[in-house]
Write a structure and sequence with these properties.
Elements (H helix, E strand, L loop, with lengths): L2 H25 L4 H15 L4 H19 L11 H49 L4 H16 L3 E6 L2 E2 L10 E4 L4 E5 L6 H68 L5 H32 L8 E3 L1 H11 L8 E6 L6 E3 L1 H18 L5 E9 L4 E7 L32 H11 L3 E6 L5 E8 L6
Parallel strand pairs: 6-8
Antiparallel strand pairs: 1-2, 1-4, 3-4, 5-7, 8-9, 9-11, 10-11
Helix pairs in contact: 1-2, 1-3, 2-3, 2-4, 3-4, 4-5, 4-6, 5-6, 6-7, 7-10, 8-9, 9-10
Length: about 450
């Protein structure tokens, strides 16, 4: 509704209200004093509708008092001087009260407006500082500005981003900022103060959008740099780990081919064992590298099923029996251990990696303990693999589960540095956790906890 129509409705409402009160006072045979008080209160009420309504109410009240309650009634003539003074005081008081009420109403509306402006500014600032998405921030800003200024529709345009197209047709408000344009459709005329505030808000929004875009560009640049760094490190580490066993295999095979007849049987056996061991090391590296690539690609999806943890542990130990002959592997699995929801293949891979890690570092003849117990207080299952090897240096605790962080406590450095990183990824995929502890008496203990029901991390 246009502003002049709203003004007409308010003035008409003021006339009707004053007329009704005057009529009621006349019907009740009120005297001039009572009628003046009633009409003054009415003017006080209609003054909240605006200055024009308050002044109109005061004028109509003056006429009603003169016509209905001042002798001679039914005429605008006044015989007594006291009545002239009374009517004059009423008119002045009503006009003053109407103006004061209107002024207070305006100040109240202004205060509400400023509070709304402050909320919009604070909300936009918080969103921009928190690194919100540019699209989300613009949509939120458009809704807030439409509510603040009473727009029928509001559109914010920033580059390729457009909040909505409702205000593009018949838009009668346009504010251009550096990189941000506001289009709005408003049924009321905006004041110069409204335009100034809109320009300030759009300018602040444009600055915030630029800051968000710069932050996104910085994040993308850092991500690209980090991916490049990790890719280079990955290739370097894989190349290094491949070079050592390939060199050993090539040297041993070359020696056998060149001097087979001159080599003693015992030396031949040692060279063949070297080829076998290094080939197994290569196979383990390739397997772990492929597994890590699958994890990085986001293709890690668990297929949980009910698993007997005791059977799982025994099966993993049996698979590693050929390389565990030089060690004593002891099982400590609780008899009342409940079944657990796990991905069987992943759970077996976790145990194999932890056992291979213990077998590589534990001295021959030492004991390796594999335990499984239920944690009653958290309703979780705990798996432990402990050895009595050299353990992990204190400075390496924080990065032991990172990729290519093989401990330097083994002289031959035969590890790939991928096993524990894969363990962490597979445990996290089940919603569990993994940590390192010192073994009592020296050595390393790796502890994995799993929820009774597998859940995505």
């Amino acid at each position: 509704m246009p502003w002049y129509e709203r003004l007409s409705v308010r003035v008409a409402l003021a006339v009707v209200l004053v007329g009704l009160v005057a009529g009621g006072a006349r019907a009740a045979n009120a005297d001039l004093t009572v009628a003046s008080l009633l009409l003054l209160v009415t003017v006080l009420g209609v003054g909240t509708l605006g200055l024009a309504s308050g002044l109109t109410g005061a004028f109509v009240g003056f006429l009603a008092l003169n016509w209905f309650f001042t002798d001679p009634t039914g005429s605008f003539k006044i015989h007594r001087t006291d009545d002239v003074v009374a009517l004059g005081v009423f008119a002045a008081s009503a006009a003053l009260v109407g103006w004061i009420v209107q002024r207070l109403s305006t100040l109240r509306a202004t205060a509400i407006q400023r509070e709304a402006e402050a909320r919009v500014r604070l909300d936009l600032t918080n969103r921009l500082l928190s690194g919100a998405d540019v699209d989300d921030a613009l949509h939120s800003a458009a809704d807030a500005l439409a509510q603040l200024f009473g727009f029928d529709a509001c559109t914010l345009i920033a580059g390729d981003i457009r909040t909505n197209g409702a205000a593009l047709e018949r838009a009668n408000v346009r504010v251009d900022g550096p990189g941000v344009t506001l289009l709005a459709r408003s049924s009321r005329r905006l004041t110069p103060a409204d335009h100034a505030l809109l320009e300030a808000l759009v300018a602040g929004l444009a600055a915030g959008v630029d800051r968000l875009r710069l932050q996104e560009e910085v994040r993308e640049a850092r991500l690209v740099a980090e991916v490049g760094r990790q890719r280079a490190g990955f290739l370097s580490a894989v190349s290094h780990n491949l070079r050592t066993p390939l060199t050993a295999v090539k040297a041993a095979a070359g020696t056998l081919l060149a001097s087979w007849s001159r080599i003693e049987p015992e030396e031949r056996r040692e060279l063949l064992e070297t080829i076998s061991d290094e080939a197994e090391r290569l196979e383990r590296l390739v397997r772990n590298t492929l597994e890590l690539s699958r994890i990085r690609a986001g293709a890690l999806e668990i297929e949980p099923e009910r698993v007997d943890v005791a059977d799982l542990v025994q099966h993993a130990v049996r698979r590693l029996r050929p390389i565990a002959r030089a060690h004593r592997v002891r099982l400590d699995v609780a008899d009342d251990l409940p079944s657990v929801s796990l991905d069987v293949t992943m759970a077996e891979q976790i145990l194999l990696n932890l056992l291979e890690n213990a077998l590589r570092f534990a001295p021959p003849g030492s004991e390796i303990l594999v335990g499984a117990h239920a944690l009653r207080e958290t309703d979780e299952i705990e798996l432990r693999v402990s050895d009595h090897g050299p353990g992990v240096p204190a400075e390496a605790h924080a990065r032991i589960f990172e990729e290519f962080q093989s401990a330097e406590t083994r002289p031959d450095r035969s590890g790939t540095g991928l096993g524990l990183a894969i363990v962490r990824a597979l445990v996290f995929a089940h919603g569990g956790s993994v940590r390192y502890e010192e073994t009592s008496g020296g050595g390393a203990t790796f502890v994995c906890t799993f929820p009774r029901e597998a859940r995505a991390a």
